[in-house]
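Lab manual, section 2.4: Encoding a predicted structure.

Procedure: take the sequence of the chain (186 residues), apply the prediction step described in section 2.3, and record the output as structure tokens. A sample record is shown.
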Amino acid sequence: MKLRDELPTDHRLATVYRYGAAFCGAALVAFGCLGFADRLSPFNTAGTTLAGLSTNGVLSVISVLCGAVLITGAVIGGNLASTLNMTVGTLFLLSGFVHLFILDRSANVLDFGMTNVVFSFVMGLLILTFGMYGRVSGSLPHDNPYWRQRHPEQAAREDARRRAQAPPEVTGPASAARSAFTEPRS
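Recorded output:
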């Protein structure tokens, strides 16, 4: 199964993807800009804290770049925003796991502390949730565009059944004249 095969091109879930990416991207850009404002040295691992998280110049650059990628996805929107949210969210989760294992080692060049690891997990899950919202579930409603894309035959049968049950719609001048006689006057 290819991911692109199941993506509908136009759906109302895209607003969730856009707002989620914009919100998380803005938070990351703000954190990175605060690091730039403090003029942090690039590879300082002395434990400089900012907004409760330990940071250095390189982590500020990475935060701004990740935030800019998410904001760009929010501007473009649609399926790209969803896929981008899922990708960046997964990278944040992986970063949390990697930094969990290198906390007190010399390989910790980004100066991650335990609060950074927790932040990475929380932000990753949040971004990932925004990306997968309405897209991944065992019981998607039948009007969901992803369900319809995955089950085209059943969606066509349901549409045909719905059209057969709907009363016929009559339009034109003859129907307007007919309704004038059948509608009660007040």
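Check your result against the sample. The longest helix spans residues 14-37.
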